[in-house]
Model the fold of this input.
Amino acid sequence: MSEELIHYNVKVRIAEITIDRPDKAHAFNVEMLKLLYNYLIEADKDEKVNYILIKSTGTRFFSAGYDLKQIQGSPENVKQVTEWGRKVNETMLYIKKPIITQVQGIAVGFGVLLILASDLRIFADRPKEELYLRLPELAISAFPQTGATLLPLLAFGQTYAKYMLFTADKVGVDDLRNLNFPTRVFPLEDLDTKTKEFMRDLVKYKNEFIFTTKTMLSIMNKRYIESCFDLEDECGAIAYANKSYEELSEFIRNLYKKYT
Done:
C-alpha cells in the first residue's frame, strides 16, 4: 500500500519523488518514511541521477507531517516514527545528490522539516492562507525531534527558530522571502514547468563539482549535526518521563556539561 503513496521516477537526470496521499494531507506513516528513505538511497546510488526533486500531488498541502493517528496510543509507532524521521532527515543532509523541494501548499511539522533539510526550495507564489510553514509541536504537546530544533536553526538562525517553535505561527511565502529562504518563487499555475526549466540548467553542471561541493558542506557540519540529533533524542526521552522539577533541572545541568 505504501508504494502507491510515494512514487519514484527518473527523468533527464532528475529523480522525482512524489508524495501522493491527498486524502490524508500527504501525512507520513512509518511505511512511507521507510519508502522515502529507500528512494533517497536509490537516487543517490544511481549514476543517471544528478539531482533529487521532492514534491506532492494536488495544491492544498505539501505535507501535513506525521500521521498522528498512527502514533497516538502506540509507543512502538512513536519509536519507529522518531527513528525513521531522523533517518530521512539525516540522509537528506548527508547524501551527495542535491535535493530540491517543490512546495505548492501548506507544510506542517515533518513536512516543514523535509523542506528545511533540502538544499534548494522552490515555492508557489500564494497568499499565507494557502501556503504556509508551521511547526506546531510544542502547541500540540509533541516533543520536537527528528530535526525539529536543528533544521530551523540551520535554516534561519536561533532567533527565528525560537519564534517558529515557541509561537507555532504560520510563516508565509512573503515572510520567507524576507529571510531569503526560497531559491525561486513561481506562480502556482507555472510551478511544474518553471521548476523543470530551473532544474534543466542545474543538471548541466559538472557532476564532480556538484557532488563534492555538497559533500564538503556536509562534512564541515557533520559532527555538529549528529550531536544535535542525539541531543534531541536524549531530551525527547526525558520529556515524556514525568520527572520532577528538580530532576529535570539536574538533567539540564548535565546536558550543558555533556554537550558544551
Remarks:
- Residues 207-239 form the longest helix (33 residues).
- DSSP finds ten helices and ten strands in the chain.
